[in-house]
Amino acid sequence: MGKPKTSKSPKASKVDRTEAEPLDEATPTELDAETTAFLGRVHTLLFNVPKHLDRAKRHGYTQKEHDLGWELYTTASGKNRRFEHWLAESDQRDVAAGVSAERMRLLQEIDAFENLWFPRMRALIPRVLPRESAARFAAAFFKDLAQQPLGPTVVDSVKTFLNRVDELASSAEPGARELYRTLGERGLTPKKIESMRRLIAAAEEHRTPDRAAPALSPAEIAKAKEAQLAALESLRLWYNDWATTFRGIFGTRAQITLGLTALKRKRTSAAPEDAAPEDAAPEEEDQGDAGGF
What residue segments make up the domains of the chain, in order of their start? Predict the structure, then answer.
């Protein structure tokens, strides 16, 4: 009996591993693109291996192994987790960050104001103030005041900025009142300042997420997440085992069906769009109903 054909230069897939990190119920259970693609390959194998069951059984693939593959796949994909888990993870992530969706919207508006007016003020001071005092004035105005990254600290920086702008209107410093008038001409009017103060007040009130705390306990969510990630790691080992085995016993066409080999397109003058797998030579395959375990 001839040796079953394999694809050209088959490469055993490496076992994918992820860095171990402390589990935190406030961290979302996210499946990245690579993991999602991996789960797709596993599903293809599990769904199609019954078509080639006779040969798979001869090499140790049993009902127990098949059921284990489906069980690990189901858990690793999160299929058996409650919908409320995903909502709770989102809520708890907000609690951990101390920023609700509404407060983040407010912070973004305040941050946009800061990004616009802090640089404009620095540019206006040397134009409006007397040359001999402009540098000293700028240093005093921006003392302990700098642009902040998007987050809660931007509230205090803009609040301080607005207070100092208000002081310009009554300042005896040469050029200060002219600077205040110029700011108004450029758009930083008393009405705009009052509007920004209202945003700041609203942001200070929204210090907790808008949604109520989830009914599920953090321990329950953490346990479900731990089980999902553990199943994903076990599934990688299961898949690596059987993918390596099946690449050694099945020919190219069967490997394509099982998702173990990608189909490549070859262009020729006669049939430019014909699709052909590598080394698509005639091969012995299990045909038709392969039967059950």
Answer: 1-12+31-97+220-293, 99-205
DSSP label of 7: -
**Can you tell me which residue has the tokens 């078509």?**
51
Phi, psi (deg, nearest 5) at residue 265: -100, 135
Given CA atoms 57, 60, 61, 62 in this order, what sign does their dihedral have? positive
Residue 26: pLDDT over 50: no
* pLDDT 10s digits, 213-243: 445 667 777 788 888 899 999 999 999 999 9
**Close Cβ partners of 46 (under 8 Å, ≥ 6 residues apart):** 66, 69, 70, 73
> pLDDT of 143-161, one tens digit each?
999 999 888 889 999 999 9
Phi, psi of 275, rounded to the nearest 5 degrees? -100, 135
Tokens 């005041």 belong to which residue?
A: 145
Q: Can you tell me which residue has the tokens 């007040």?
A: 201
Which of these, 210, 225, 211, 219, lies nearest to 82 by C-alpha position? Answer: 225
240 φ, ψ to 5°? -60, -40
Three-class SS state of 122: helix
Burial annotation 186-213 (CB, 10 A radius, 16+ → b, else e): eebeeeebeebeebbeebeebeebeeee
Backbone angle region of 259, left / alpha / beta, with phi > 0 → left and psi within -120 to 50 → alpha: left
d(CA 28, CA 33): 15
| Angle formed at CA 239 by CA 233 and CA 245, multiple of 5 degrees | 145
